[in-house]
Specification:
Chains: A alpha/beta, B mainly alpha, C alpha/beta
Oligomer: heterotrimer
CATH class of the largest domain in chain B: Mainly Alpha
Structural class of chain C: alpha/beta
CATH superfamily of the largest domain in chain B: MetI-like
Strand content of chain C: 15-25%
Radius of gyration of chain C: 18 Å
CATH topology of the largest domain in chain B: MetI-like fold
Largest interface: A-B, 81 and 72 residues
Largest sheet of chain B: none
Order of helices and strands of chain B: HHHHHHHHHHHHHHHHHHHHHHHEHH
Distance between the termini of chain B: 38 Å
Order of helices and strands of chain C: EEEHEHEHHHEHEHEE
Number of domains of chain B: 2
Number of strands of chain B: 1
Shape of chain C: globular
Radius of gyration of chain B: 26 Å
Number of helices of chain C: 7
Chain lengths: ~325, ~575, ~240
């Protein structure tokens, strides 16, 4: 075996030990977030650098979990003993349940800088980016995508889409809410029609997008309206675009919040203040492939001007909390028939 | 051995002796750790759960449907895997020499440890609607290739995983039959039917119950494959329902109930299988065995040349193209790798953790098997079986339940960060244990009676017995077990995702990060690195233990050393 | 003197024509060789395994006794050791594990660890943990040279002929200073020269005071080595 990986590995162990030793130092903010946020190319490293430069002697430590649901679950399991000062990545659909844990403190940030398609006055959850759920299609396989849900449902059966499971995935839940918002009580009937077009229902977004859609298995996949931005800006291809639906699109807003039990509440509030500055937000568009939560002006990449700009809507977090199980059951019944 | 088993007298009273209780205590310690943490984590969930109502299993049509589908797909996958593995193994045994045989066997050993996300990518690339096989399918059936989605897809993926494993283990059992038997078969000119009845079937029969239990358990608990290829919520397994209950609904009671159901079904099956006797165990690619005796087989001539060829080509077509698709996709992204500064540290981190998990699994496996041997030698067959069976406990306990339960159990001492890594190593070690035990079993229990008696008579005990009698035969299986455990841990994402980590990712986490941010070309390259590392680990361990040690004799310094005094010698 | 007193054993299952019950009574003096004969299936291996401790008897005693007691103890007559002499009778060997009995068995084959070279196979007899002193290493080399295997100490058993393997096994028992040598058809299938060499090794041990129990089909072996003969009939030892 090559000695190099072993040396690297030993170095890593030493590094880990050093990190844990530093955890005792004052003014370290621990931020729970999801894994793609902290990736080398994600927004995490740039944000860490900018914030540490801004506050001087403080440190920002990310702890990565696999998704928003895992963040909520972790908070629930840890309760008041949580090591986190901040949690970054709970979306609107998880807000009500996170609020009920009674672990989060008001952010006290100035919301006037926010630029969202909806009004926002929540005292606890501070939006840091947003996007719309959308079907992304492959222009080479599908030159004329459906222009509305109605067209999609009425399309010939050989138009296949890949969707995600609302029981296990954030985008899957997004589609469920989207359909419910568009069709209301008619949602089960709409699902039955949509199911004729569903190639498969994957557990998570990654399998759908990577294993299936990019392999050409179906011309459409449930994703975000911002997904094409990445393909256009980084891969320089216009091949993948989002289909704009006339009924409007369901909105996803990702939020940051601080914990009551934080050892450095002032510093945590500093960070939340920092969230709505250009220094934080400039890492969002291409780092997280989402819309920034403030007006970035010139700094917003040009490809974002070429994305669809449909009407958007949401349920309130409380509505989601109250009806989620019931709606999932409704979907199950419509889909297993 | 047979006469021992037939005696009426009680077992020999050899227990009262220094050191000989060591295996028992080692086994008991490992057993306590396993059962304690396994059932402890389940217990932690149950304690937190408001109230478990088993009746919801049959009252709720949704849960009943989930249970039915889980059982159905697992049974079907097991049946198909085994039914196809038998002729493949027989064909491989009959053809001890052909070009690429070693490569094929290596690939068969690897199929088990390919991470499911990677395997899925490969399967879709080959069998998907736009896959390599799609034109062929259309030409044959006239319909577009949609067989990858739905039950047929699930079974195909499970067969891809389990058939090579099953065939490899069955082949080993066939090759273990004494050379004398095969020589006899050759001399008598036994034909196909006769060889099957006298040699092949008796050997395979011993192995099938355990193999079926192992494959059933793996299929029953499969998550990503069922979720991706299932087609819709109609194909929901117990694992999925459990994931939903635990993560989305925070319904600990239901999660615990589902875990208990899974535990009951799979442990019941294992109990049944273990009571059937027979021991599958994987020994590092024993190419030497079939080559030693190049006896002729009458049934290797004639039409079987053609049928064997068909089976082997079919096996290759099942196994190799998906792996090749992964490699091809990975090569496309190799140029991006240079820019990935986090790749090599992630690989290093993964290797360190894998080494930890692998050693843990190896030690636990050795301890359990030693304890089992100690008990079995004293006629405690039931306790011996229990001790061996406990190694399977973690396989049948959903990882999510284990992880969450452990988190609940150990929470006060966990501050996130690198203790999380430690916990991941622990759980990965446990999860690799069943495979480690399959591999080690044969070597550790198989000290032949003649050698055991000889060792007893010469008073070779304790450490010396391990050093001189066990270790030489254990090296290769131990290396293979370590390779299996390490690669299983290397490719594992489920557990590490559960505990979270500082921003420094492991290799599978890096892969998911890349996928989570559209870098699928780079992700394909990362997958290739992962696959190459797995293959390299196997090759490295196989190479390190490629032959028996020769133990050179250190000559005493003759000229200046006095001849030993005569009374040291028992001479007349 | 080694005495077996109604050393009994019972097979719970056996085929028609086989003896299910055994009770062995005999005595064997140091330096003496006793040959046991009998048709196959008569229980010769059972006897050796009981003595070596590989099987546990259901009843009976196996012990070392003084010369006087042994003389008064009827051979092959099924008489019990006299009562009242218990203080002169040593510990019941039945309670002892194989390694504490001072016995060495040499079978027809499988006497060596196949994966270990000759010198370790011999060395394990001198020191079970193989911590060999220089003197012991010396004696291994000398011993091998004496039995005609000089220079072969690094060979694996598979690289030796059958006769050579048996010489290694006998050399090991020689160096082990065993009290009783149990020979279970050890010369079968060997040529005359090899057998004579092995006989010599056995005689050397006898001369050193080792008691030998020989099970062999071959009258030549028996004639060459045995002073006494017994026969196995219906699970009992009787005078031939």
């Amino acid at each position: 075996m090559n000695a190099k990986p072993i040396c690297t590995a030993l170095g890593v162990v030493a590094g880990l030990a050093a990190v844990s030793a530093m955890a005792d130092e004052p003014r370290t903010l621990t931020v729970y977030t999801y894994d793609s946020f902290v990736a080398e190319w994600g927004p995490g490293p740039g944000i860490k650098e900018a914030f540490e430069a801004r506050c001087g002697d403080c440190r920002l430590e990310f702890v990565a979990l696999s998704g928003g649901v895992d963040l909520l679950q972790r908070l629930r399991l840890e309760g008041e003993g949580s090591a986190a000062d901040l949690v970054l990545g709970l979306d609107m659909n998880l807000m009500a349940e996170a609020r009920d844990l009674d672990l989060l403190a008001p952010h006290q940030a100035n919301l006037s800088r926010l630029s969202l398609p909806v009004e926002w006055d929540d005292p606890v959850f501070l939006p840091y980016d947003w996007g719309r759920f959308a079907f992304v299609y492959d222009r080479e396989a599908l030159p004329n995508p459906p222009k509305s849900f109605a067209e999609l449902l009425a399309a010939p059966d050989d138009l296949k889409v890949i969707i995600q499971d609302p029981r296990t995935s954030v985008t899957g839940l997004g589609l469920l809410l989207w359909m419910k918002r568009v069709y209301g009580d008619e949602a089960p009937a709409a699902w039955e029609k949509l199911n004729d077009h569903v190639l498969t229902v994957t557990g998570g977004w990654s399998q759908a997008y990577f294993s299936l859609f990019m392999n050409g298995e179906a011309p459409m996949v449930l994703s975000y309206s911002t997904s094409p931005a990445y393909h256009m800006a980084v891969e320089n291809t216009d091949r993948y675009q989002a289909a704009e639906f006339a009924e409007g699109h369901y909105l996803q807003v990702e939020t940051a919040a601080m914990l009551k039990t934080s050892e450095h509440p002032a510093l945590a509030r500093d960070f939340l203040d920092f969230v709505l500055t250009a220094d934080f937000q400039r890492h969002i568009p291409l780092g997280n492939v989402m819309y920034p939560a403030i007006e970035l002006g010139e700094e917003r990449p040009a490809v974002f001007d070429r994305l669809i700009e449909p009407e958007s809507f949401t349920f309130t977090p409380d509505e989601v909390q109250a009806h989620r199980r019931e709606w999932i059951r409704e979907w199950l019944n419509a889909s297993t028939r | 051995m047979a006469s021992e088993a037939l005696t009426a007298g009680k077992a020999s009273p050899h227990g009262q002796r220094r050191l000989t209780q060591l295996p028992l205590w080692a086994g008991l310690t490992a057993l306590a750790a396993l059962v304690g943490l396994g059932l402890g984590s389940l217990g932690a969930l149950l304690v937190q759960a408001p109230g478990v109502s088993p009746s919801s299993l049959w009252r709720e049509p949704y849960l009943a449907g989930v249970l039915r589908f889980s059982l159905w797909q697992a049974s079907l996958s097991t049946l198909v895997s085994l039914a196809l593995a038998v002729p493949v193994a027989v064909a491989l045994a009959r053809r001890p020499r052909f070009v690429g045989r070693r490569l094929l066997l290596r690939a068969m050993e690897l199929s088990l440890v390919v991470p499911s996300l990677i395997a899925l990518f490969g399967l879709v690339a080959v069998h998907g609607r736009q896959g390599w096989a799609a034109p062929l399918w259309e030409a044959l059936t006239g319909a577009p290739a949609g067989y990858l989605y739905g039950l047929s897809g699930i079974v195909l993926a499970h067969v891809f995983y389990n058939l090579p494993l099953a065939a490899r283990l069955l082949l080993q059992e066939l090759e273990r039959a004494p050379a004398a038997h095969w020589r006899l078969a050759a001399q008598l000119g036994l034909q196909r039917q006769a060889i099957w009845r006298t040699l092949e079937w008796p050997a395979l029969k011993r192995l099938l119950p355990r193999l079926a239990a192992l494959i059933f358990t793996l299929c029953f608990t499969s998550f990503a494959i069922v979720m991706t290829l299932g087609g819709g919520p109609g194909s929901t397994t117990l694992e999925v329902a459990l994931y939903q209950a635990l993560k989305f609904d925070n319904d600990l009671a239901l999660a615990a109930l589902l875990a208990l159901v899974q535990l009951t079904i799979c442990l019941g099956l294992w109990a049944l299988a273990l009571s059937q006797g027979g021991a599958p165990s994987l020994v590092a690619g024993d190419d030497a065995m079939p080559l030693q005796g190049r006896w002729q087989r009458r049934d290797a001539l004639g039409v079987s040349r053609f049928t064997d060829g068909c089976w082997l080509v079919a096996l290759s077509l099942l196994l190799l193209p998906p792996l090749a698709a992964v490699v091809l996709a990975g090569l496309g992204g190799v140029t991006d790798l240079a820019a990935q500064s986090s790749l090599w540290p992630a690989l290093g981190r993964s290797l360190v953790m894998a080494a930890g998990a692998g050693s843990l699994a190896l030690m636990l496996g050795l301890a359990l098997l030693a304890g089992r041997g100690w008990l079995a030698a004293r006629g405690q067959r039931l306790t011996a079986g229990l001790m061996e069976g406990s190694g399977q406990l973690i396989l049948v306990l959903p990882a999510l339940v284990l992880g969450t339960g452990l988190f609940l159990l150990l929470r006060p001492r966990l501050g996130g960060g690198w203790q999380g890594y430690g916990l991941v190593v622990l759980v990965n070690g446990f999860m690799a244990l069943p495979f480690v035990m399959q591999v080690l079993r044969g070597a550790l229990l198989g000290l032949p009676v003649a050698q055991r008696r000889l060792a007893d008579q010469l008073d070779i005990q304790g450490l010396a017995r391990f050093r001189w009698l066990l270790w030489p035969r254990l090296r290769r299986p131990a290396a293979l077990a370590l390779a299996y455990a390490m690669t299983l841990s290397l490719g594992d994402f489920s557990v590490i995702a559960l505990f979270g980590s500082p921003s420094a990712p492991t290799l599978p986490m890096l892969l998911y990060q890349q996928l989570g941010s559209y870098r699928w070309q780079t992700a394909a390259a990362t997958a290739l690195v992962l696959l190459a590392t797995v293959a390299a680990l196997f090759m490295c361990f196989a190479w390190l233990t490629r032959r028996l040690p020769r133990y050179p004799f250190a000559c005493p310094p003759r000229p200046d050393f006095p001849q030993p005094p005569a009374n040291d010698r028992p001479e007349p | 003197m080694l005495c077996a007193d109604h050393l009994s054993f019972h097979y719970t299952r056996c085929d028609p024509g086989e003896t299910p019950d055994f009770a062995f009574t005999f005595h064997l003096a140091p330096g003496e060789c006793l040959a046991v004969s009998g048709p196959s299936g008569a229980g010769k291996s059972t006897l050796l395994n009981l003595l070596a401790g590989f099987l546990t008897p259901s009843a009976g005693r196996l012990c070392w006794v003084g010369e006087a007691v042994g003389e008064r103890f009827g051979e092959g007559q099924g008489e019990s050791l006299p009562k009242g002499l218990n203080e002169e009778i040593g510990e019941n060997l039945v309670e002892q594990p194989p390694w504490a009995r001072g016995m060495t068995t040499v079978f027809q084959d499988h006497n060596l660890f196949e994966h270990l070279p000759v010198w370790i196979n011999v060395g394990l007899g001198l020191a079970p943990d193989l911590k060999l002193s220089d003197a012991q290493r010396e004696s291994i080399l000398d011993g091998l040279a004496e039995v005609g295997l000089g220079g072969l100490h690094d060979r694996l058993p598979g690289e030796l002929s059958g006769g050579q393997q048996q010489r290694v096994a006998l050399l090991r028992s020689l160096l082990r200073e065993t009290r009783v040598l149990l020979l279970d058809e050890p010369f079968s299938g060997l040529d005359r020269d090899n057998r004579e060499a092995l006989w010599g090794l056995v005689r050397r041990q006898q001369a050193a005071g080792v008691a030998v129990l020989l099970v062999s089909h071959d009258p030549e072996d028996v004639d060459a080595l045995a002073q006494h003969r017994l026969q196995l009939l219906d699970g009992r030892l009787v005078t031939a």
